[in-house]
Write a structure and sequence with these properties.
Elements (H helix, E strand, L loop, with lengths): L8 E2 L8 E2 L3 H19 L5 E6 L6 E4 L5 E3 L1 H6 L7 E6 L2 H14 L5 E5 L2 H11 L9 E7 L8 H7 L4 E7 L2 H6 L1 H5 L5 H6 L4 H8 L6 H14 L12 E4 L6 E8 L3 H16 L7
Parallel strand pairs: 2-4, 3-6, 3-8, 6-7, 8-9
Antiparallel strand pairs: 1-5, 4-5, 9-11, 10-11
Helix pairs in contact: 1-11, 4-5
Length: about 280
């Protein structure tokens, strides 16, 4: 167990606690480390720092088959050394959102939090409205976490959010999904990937490339990066995305990637990837 694992763990509080697999801790470690660097590095450069979680969950989750409880992304963001000025938590499941409200109030009672019930793709206008209005005297920078359960992310949602000054941490859940549903996506009539990438031309590009089926997930990650570039974000090469694998069979599950319009954020992300690989202390220098 990594030496800092206790930071991500919690005691059972009796509230609803959805199950996750053991590799979720890798994801939460990446999120937590980047939150810390972003919140601290930007605190004196922007008047307002906003944290947005599009799939906020209940705040706690239990590792399947164990008694281990992990703190979810909203609580990790609430407990950074230099808290954000505002938090926006969106969650479709009302029971999970109710539990998150209780945990948030207990852990960070003074935080400025807006809760948006419903699916983020249908509530994106409400999320945008909750972001403080920027002006020459009030510079606002947001960090948005998009952590869906599968590759059901809607690019149009990110497009609308990107009208503000905003960085994105995005989980691209395309590992097992892309392999299992390959024929359905490539030759069928599914629009799921079209909506995730914001275009339908990817199929022709994939067929033109003519590479192995096993390269499909990497191709989709590259296509997503190109879509983000169309919004003015810096492109991300595969070596700058974190590939998370399962503990059981070492299967590729998802890519975790940062998208920002500024190199400073990518420096933060580089530090996070280095730490997550070698387990040296991020703050030891």
């Amino acid at each position: 167990m990594p030496p800092d694992s206790e930071k991500f763990r919690a005691e059972d509080d009796g509230l609803i606690c959805p199950e996750v697999r053991s590799w979720a801790e890798t994801k939460y470690r990446l999120i937590s480390l980047y939150d810390e660097l972003f919140a601290t590095g930007m605190k004196d450069k922007w008047d307002k720092r906003v944290y947005i979680d599009l799939y906020a969950g209940a705040g706690f989750s239990r590792v399947k088959g164990t008694g281990v409880i992990l703190k979810g992304s909203p609580l990790l963001a609430l407990t950074v050394a230099h808290p954000f000025d505002k938090y926006i938590f969106c969650e479709n499941d009302g029971n999970l959102l109710d539990a998150l409200k209780v945990r948030t109030k207990r852990i960070s009672p003074n935080a400025d939090v807006v809760y948006v019930p419903g699916k983020c793709d249908f509530k994106v206008d409400d999320i945008c409205a909750a972001i403080p209005r920027a002006s020459s005297n009030n510079k606002v920078l947001s960090l948005c976490l998009a952590d869906p359960f599968d590759f059901g992310l809607k690019f149009e949602t990110l497009r609308k959010l990107s009208s503000s000054f905003m960085d994105f941490l995005v989980l691209l859940a395309i590992g097992m999904d892309a392999n299992r549903n390959y024929d359905h996506y490539v030759d069928g009539d599914s629009t799921k990937i079209d909506e995730a990438l914001g275009n339908s031309e990817w199929r022709e590009r994939w067929k033109t490339v003519g590479v192995r089926r096993s390269d499909f997930r990497a191709f989709l990650a590259g296509e997503f990066s190109k879509s983000m570039e169309s919004l003015g974000y810096l492109g991300q090469t595969m070596d700058k995305m974190k590939l998370v694998r399962s503990d059981e069979r070492n299967l590729p599950l998802y890519y975790f990637a940062l998208f920002s319009r500024h190199q400073t954020a990518h420096k933060f992300w580089k530090d996070v990837l280095k730490y997550s690989t070698d387990q040296t202390s991020l703050f030891s220098e």
